[in-house]
Specification:
Strand order of the largest sheet: 1-2-9-6-5-3-4
Radius of gyration: 19 Å
Low-confidence stretches: none
Helix content: 40-55%
Shape: globular
Mean pLDDT: 94
Oligomer: single chain
Number of helices: 13
Strand content: 15-25%
Length: 355
């Protein structure tokens, strides 16, 4: 059996997500098959670049690409307008044209930053995603959502840009600290809660790294189907925000000291407890989710109170006028969208914190 998994994403344009070992060393040849030779501007951060940038540069150059690179300081606190401006100025200094390409080498922050820069530079050039974290591989590198944070909240400025290709090198997972691997598991667990009891059970039983490429492929396959049916997040794709309304609020309240994956885990546990307490979900979903998260080294609660979280969530980009749409888990494998006035969010969060 091949150790590589390939998933076709039938958006416009269509592209392939490949997961398996050694893909960064092979990225030049694989991208040469997906596109014509061009100038490839590799965007990375100060943590990932020392580990993998030279490998990627060498592979791209050997395949015939012209390569330049830009490295920005790592961390969510740098996912802002200042960093975006610096990347755009770099692309202009390198004289990239509309036939050239940006490569995002790193985790979710890098994917967002590089993707957004590609989406707005010259009104849009191509971008490829080279995720180096589990979180980016199972979620943020696929689907074309790119964004930066504003002072008022997370991901409030962004654009849709489907990548030209995604290469998930599972060898990169060995360099991740335990908490970063757990953060990625949070998004995979979320996917299991959304659609797949058997995927959820892999984490419930403590099996994470036995076959990471297969786990990535299962998560990407589900997300690809959702994105194909709702590319611009007008309906079904909102389900992918499970745990994110409260999760983003936790991130913002912490000044982004709490990582995205850990915040989503807490948000998932809180909304599950709220759903069960309010009669929207079947017992024992909240206990199963909490036990699974704890087994993977993830939090099930937060130090922040309901009022602070509700205030932060009220500025969330998912708000529409005076309403907000929550993703509510009913049982493992089945969730629903519940639209409610923002004013009703506080008691929901209270129920989730008290449950």
């Amino acid at each position: 059996m091949s150790s590589y998994h390939s998933i076709q994403v039938h958006t416009s344009p269509a592209y392939t997500v490949t997961a398996g070992p050694g893909l960064l060393k092979e990225c030049g040849g694989r991208l040469r098959e997906a596109m014509s030779l061009c100038h490839m501007a590799v965007i990375s951060d100060s943590v990932v670049a020392p580990l993998y940038l030279e490998t990627v540069r060498k592979s791209l150059s050997s395949a015939g690409f012209s390569v330049s690179s830009y490295v920005f300081p790592a961390g969510e606190s740098h996912k802002n307008l200042k960093t975006l401006s610096s990347i755009l100025e770099f692309l202009a200094e390198q004289r990239l044209t509309r036939t050239d390409c940006v490569a995002a080498l790193g985790g979710g922050v890098t994917g967002d930053m590089a993707g957004f820069a590609a989406a707005v530079y010259l009104r849009g050039i191509r971008c490829v995603q080279l995720p180096t974290t589990l979180l980016a591989a199972v979620d943020s590198s696929v689907g074309g959502k790119t964004a930066i944070d504003l002072t008022a909240g997370k991901n409030l400025a962004g654009a849709f840009l489907q990548p030209a290709a995604v290469l998930c090198d599972t060898d990169c997972l060995s360099s991740l600290p335990a908490d970063a691997l757990a953060g990625g598991a949070a998004e995979a667990i979320k996917t299991g809660v959304l659609c797949d009891e058997s995927l959820f059970s892999l984490f419930e039983n403590g099996v994470l790294a036995a076959d990471p490429a297969a786990v990535i492929a299962r998560c990407v396959s589900y997300k690809a189907g959702v994105v194909e049916r709702d590319e611009r997040e007008l309906g079904e794709r909102k389900l992918l925000n499970l745990g994110h309304t409260v999760g983003h609020a936790i991130e913002q309240c912490s000044g982004y000291a709490v990582s995205h994956g850990h915040a989503v885990a807490a948000g998932l546990a809180i909304i599950a407890r709220a759903a069960e307490a309010l009669g929207w979900a079947e017992s024992p979903i909240a206990a199963r989710i909490a036990a699974c998260l704890l087994k993977c080294g993830l939090p099930t609660g937060t130090e922040y109170g309901a009022e602070a979280l509700a205030a932060a969530a009220s500025a969330d980009k998912k708000r529409a006028g005076g309403d907000i749409t929550l993703v509510v888990p009913k049982r493992i494998g089945l969730c629903e969208l519940k639209k409610m006035p923002v004013s009703e969010l506080l008691p929901v969060i209270q129920a989730g914190l008290e449950g």
